[in-house]
Design goal:
Strand content: 5-15%
Mean pLDDT: 87
Low-confidence stretches: none
């Protein structure tokens, strides 16, 4: 994890009820499995939780593709937080799980659950977790269900949505003319109240190439599209 990238995320982050649920699970079980549909904010929530632990003196173990390396780095005395984003892959099980990795995941969870100084944060997509639990018997046990926190769009109240949009626009390089077009006639309300509101769409429209990809008068329409 890059600290600079996380600090930027913190500027954009809006705390929803999912944060409290995840923090409670992490406190009670030492590990938390963040699930949800793509773009709902699982990774961001995971990074925010990691940042809070780093501020408490934990050191970070960021797992990328080898669960055994995380197990090997476990300390008997030092405070550690293990972060494994998309631990089951982003598209299919075959993309990520190698031989006996399901066993390694359960072994790591068991070790962390019994630890007094280690936390574990895992993220995955709902449908990939469901597939994994059908295919791998070890992953269908109570361990993953016990500490699962589902992040959902419903966690974002109207106020949360408004704050999220505001934060992203405030820290964007959106031209003033585009900002004015969203404010005109309170057009931003159409974004906040849209049935397909999704944090990833807000990020894409305010932080990516889309920012300068259309005329000021088209900003609201591009958002709605």
């Amino acid at each position: 994890l890059e600290r600079q990238a996380i600090q930027r995320k913190l500027c954009l982050y809006v705390r929803t009820p999912a944060h409290a649920r995840a923090a409670e699970i992490l406190r009670d079980h030492n590990y938390c499995v963040l699930t949800g549909v793509p773009g709902v904010g699982k990774t961001t929530l995971g990074q925010v939780l990691v940042t809070s632990l780093l501020e408490e003196g934990y050191s970070l173990i960021a797992v990328r593709d080898d669960i055994q390396r995380a197990i090997d780095q476990l300390s008997a005395t030092g405070r550690q937080v293990i972060y494994y984003d998309d631990f089951l892959g982003t598209a299919s099980l075959g993309e990520r799980l190698s031989k006996n990795e399901d066993k390694g995941i359960i072994r790591l969870i068991a070790s962390v659950a019994q630890s007094k100084n280690t936390k574990l944060i895992l993220t995955t997509r709902d449908y990939i977790l469901e597939d994994a639990q059908r295919v791998y018997e070890r992953l269908s046990g109570p361990e993953l269900k016990l500490a699962k926190c589902t992040v959902q769009v419903q966690d974002f109240s109207r106020g949360h949505r408004a704050r999220l949009l505001y934060n992203h626009l405030y820290f964007s390089s959106y031209p003033q003319e585009c900002l004015d077009s969203l404010l005109a006639g309170r057009g931003y309300i159409k974004i906040i109240d849209h049935d397909n509101f999704n944090p990833r769409i807000i990020e894409h429209m305010t932080q990516g190439v889309e920012v300068h990809d259309h005329a000021p008068g088209q900003c609201l329409q591009r958002f709605i599209e």
